[in-house]
Amino acid sequence: MSLLLGFWAQEGGAAYAATKPSVSVGSGLGHLWEWLAGKDGSGPRSKTGSASDVRAAKPAEGHPAGRAPGKGKGQLAADRAPSGTAAKRTLSGKVPVGFDTRTSKRVAAKSGAKFDYFQNADGSFTRKMSENRMNYQDKSGTWRSIDTDVAKRSDGRWHERSNSLGVSFAPATGTVETGGSVEPAAFTWQTAADDTPSPSPTVTSGTSAQGDLATLTLSDSESVSWSLAGADAVTGTASGSSVPYDGVLPDTDLVLTPTADGVKESLVLNSANAPTSWVFPMTLKGLKLTTASDGTVELVDGDGAVMATLPQPFARDSHVDPTTGESHDNWAMTYSVTEVDGTAAVKMTLDPSWLAGSDIAFPVTVDPTMSVTTAGQTLTTYVYYPNTADYSSDTILRVGTPDGGSYIGQAFMKFLGLPDTDGYHITDADLHLFNVWAYTCSSSTSYNVLPITEQWWVTGQKSWSDRPATSSSIGTWSGTVSGTVCGNTSVSTGTGQWQTTDLDTDWFQKIALGQTSNYGLSVFSSGTSSNQWKKFDSSQVDSHAPYITVTYSKNSAPDIEHTYPKANFTSPSLRPQLQVKAVDPDSWPTTPLKYDFAVYSSSGTQIDTSGWQTIAPSTRSP
């Protein structure tokens, strides 16, 4: 009787077939069925159960030897395999090259709001995942890159070029003479040189001659616009993505900048005579102002859902310590929600005595004054021992100690786009940080990347004792920092060096398999060695926000390296000796290979099967 024997290997639920040898056996198949069912003893086992450890058996008694077998009765003329997914005969364990800026192609249809999808030349694909929104969907559903540069449109206002959010700025600030106005003479600003409190300015509708100073449109039914009370008539001049209004208040300049997620408004104070309290009348559509328990001002919709936030404001002077890169900061600034002539408004206050301090170097930047950010998009912060504060609105991240341990910084960040479904085979992962300051650029330094192990919130005050918990390091950056970093004497964002840390893929793989949770990553160096002290751009800096690249490769089919007997072999026994050896070239998925021996008739119809077994039934003795 002529039969066709099939050798199969399975991984991750997918079956792959080897070339099926045909075998001629005599009548009486009872023993063969017993063997296929595993009732006639087990074959040799490996120590680990891995297909690559299968041991070859010795030829069974009765194996033809001494001369080539002749053509047996009923022997098949040629080998023919039943339908199935055939594995390649050559080893496929080539290490993927992954992302290459020269050959990898961005695929807009597979990208998303916070990641770009790149198809790599070797068949793998890479996701570049940012903490900030990178892309927006146009009307056709295509993901396009956000462009925060501004351009003047037919309405005379400066508009963000490309984004799903609508951001526009007035061509000029100022007040009008009639029709509801702010009378500049009515304002008595409290300054650092005058500690006598002054009344809040009287503000009625229409504080800008050209309409609202800034407008952020979230949707057709939700928007927020605001102006700066008492602003002088100043024309803005666009430069890239920023529109500065010089001299908008006494000794004060204003800079408006669109971001991927909203608007950043900074006040630049040029002397101690500048105002230290400011009122921003607001025009709200579909939104209302509230104050959260941590003091954050929120914009909520009719159902109470938070749609946008005004994060913690702070002031930073121009002093830069040449050794530590530290400035004089004030993180005690406050917001308050108020009304002015029935109009919702936000008031912001800076301690005038701090501004009048003898060690303060001007200009002082109040940043962000009015950073209206879509909810949940602030994704970096740091803890700075021994302080207790909310640093989530800072443009920098402090890591290490500048002074041998009196102050210690540890950065924390969330990445919301990591895949959390089974099936991803992750072959490479890297964290990219933009370093803007380092204690030294003349010797090798390092820092570690650690997974966060508990739920936490980016905003809100944090102290060293209640900072988020972390586990052991999954990656270390080490090297000599570029001279560009140490040459950044003003600690300007966007000036420095990109640094890439190779991360252990096991953490990412466990997230993809649902075996661990993604709470984000922390960066820390040393609490005692000042040589490891560094500052990095935070998620508040769109163009240099931290990001992760993760490369995924397609699953490689098992390589069936060896089968026995060969095609068209004539067996003199009803219990032929069979053997198969397979390896998983990419060791993925992590479950062991499974094997199946199947018997087919000469017409290709399956007669019986041994069933899938984790340990290969590699041999059977007659």
Number of strands: 43
Shape assignment: elongated
Structural class: mainly beta
Major beta sheet, specifics?
10 strands, antiparallel
Terminal residue distance: 17 Å
**Overall mean pLDDT:** 80
Number of domains: 3
Point out poorly predicted stretches: 25-33, 35-66, 74-94, 175-210, 617-622
Helix content: under 10%
Q: Beta-strand level of the residues, as a percent range?
A: 35-45%
Query: Helical region count?
Result: 4
Gyration radius, rounded: 34 Å
Short synopsis of the structure:
With 622 residues, the chain is mainly β. The model is unreliable at 25-33, 35-66, 74-94, 175-210 and 617-622 (pLDDT under 50).
Essential attributes:
single chain, disordered C terminus, mainly beta, 622 residues, 8-stranded antiparallel sheet
